[in-house]
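Final report, Chapter 2: Outcomes

The project's central promise was a pipeline that accepts a single protein chain and returns its three-dimensional structure in a standardized token representation, suitable for archiving and comparison. That pipeline is now operational. To close this chapter, we reproduce one record exactly as it appears in the project archive, with the input sequence first and the structure output second.
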Amino acid sequence: MAVVVFFFIGQLKEKLLPCVDGMGIAYGFNPSTDRLWRWGVPCLIGKFFFVGCLVVFFTLLIVFLTLVVIDQVRQLAVVLPGELQRLHAILEGWLGKKTGSDISAGRSVDLECLRLVVAQ
């Protein structure tokens, strides 16, 4: 019986998640809405107030996080070419030690030699 329940929950998880989220939000805001109602604010206006606060909060969150992510991508674009050159030099040195040849001198390393290095 439990297997059948878990199977149906697994199949319906895309549909159930928004409902569970909505119940959690409603449960969290219920005491605040009740307090506003006791102060004389109509229940519907209190609910719209808190939903509006959530919309404003998440909109500001997205705006500020987007600005931070854009800044991080710009910094990555500036630093990435130097980091790739550094990685290239490290790999050349490592392969040079493993194969016993100098890759940077223009000599190529044969494929069988690279297979032996990777196999170690």
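Archive annotation: The helical segments are 2-11, 13-38, 43-99, 111-119.
This record, like all others produced under the grant, will remain available to the consortium after the project formally closes.
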